[in-house]
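User: Is it possible to get a 3D structure for a protein together with its bound compound? The compound here is adenosine monophosphate. I've pasted both below.
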Amino acid sequence: MRTNLSVEEALELVLGEVRGGLKAEELPLREALGRVLAEDLPALVDHPDQDDTAIDGYACRQADTLGASPESPVRLRLIGEAPAGRPFPGRVGPGEAVAVYTGAPIPEGADAVVRVEDTRREGEEVLLFAPASPKDIRPKGDDLKRGEVYLRRGDLLTPGRLGLAAAMGHPRVRVFRRPRVGILSTGDEVVEPGEPLPFGGVYNSNAYSLLGLVLEAGGEPVLLGKVEDRPEALLERLEGAGPLDLLLTSGGVSMGAYDVVRRVLEERGEVVFWKVKQQPGGPLLLARLGGLPVLGLPGNPVSSMVTFFLYGRPFLFRLQERTDPPYASLWAKALTPFRGAKGKKVFRRGVLALGEEAVVRTTGNQSSGVLRSMAFGNALVVIPPDGEVREGERVEVIPLTFVP
Ligand code: AMP
Ligand code: MG
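Assistant: Yes, that's possible. Here is the predicted structure of the complex:
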């Protein structure tokens, strides 16, 4: 077992536990938001599928309209119209025009369009006060070229990409199955909300913040409830959990006599590492239990969320072969000081505001028991080991993408 790792070393070991091979499943597009593509998607069609007009106006021959102006308009004979989806069946000859509407194919014979604002209709004729131009013709394949791959395996399906898949002609997509993530809270004092709170009790908040984080990372949470600080209770519950891709436990990984998670994993599984030089979340543990990767998250509500965000989320991204990074940092001006810690990388919770200049202030009480810092903070402020941030200094921040 390794111990006292840096954040970077710990992350590498966690990612090293990804075995891959999540099965793919086929879903209709309407159910695929937030899923990750397991296949490359080529466009099945050109878009537009032929030259079409980007504006409402009149399609005609540009040569007929040269020099048209309000003072000397050009007069063309109107021979028909082409609304979107109803192509004009004939051909545009010299001195002729067809009324066209956005998205309609350019009729044969025409090579330019004049916008309707620069025209006036007079019975079967139309007056042009400006020359027609080809600039508002969208060439065939301007948006999508048939056969070209625009979405790839590993791409997260966002709203824009769902639309893109549809535009390319795909009604269904192959996506990775959502990883099943067990969430097990430990602690004699932990009580489900809705039950009366005994003296010294605490409501099981970790199960719900972790559930949210797992969903947000594309996983399928499997709520395993809570167990008391007894090794047998823990093992029993795990046996009934069904197949999992990752197990999250919360609590029981510190130094105390009742910290049974660590003991059980040492005896029944294999602990890869315990303790990371970071705050909050220092007692984090990584283990394997019969092939199942286990992240033993510290019980404090902020610690469990921060460690899941820093390690569990990247694990789930990698497992789903996501191509985008699980988090990224930017630099902001500190509006308040942030304390560091000796020998530890520190993740304070801040409120980040983006504008002409990014600025960040503390959420207030930074105790790892104060969950409000994660509920209303929208960024982690990163302070390197032995560092310290004074007001006005620039500091690295990691936006928490799930907080508005
Ligand atoms: P532990 O990591 O077990 O030493 O717990 C650290 C602190 O987190 C203690 O104050 C616990 O009461 C609290 N805690 C542990 N599990 C939970 C939970 N599921 N929900 C809320 N608080 C918890
Ligand atoms: Mg405990």
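The helical segments are 7-15, 62-65, 159-167, 206-216, 231-239, 260-268, 301-319, 372-376. The chain has a mean pLDDT of 96.
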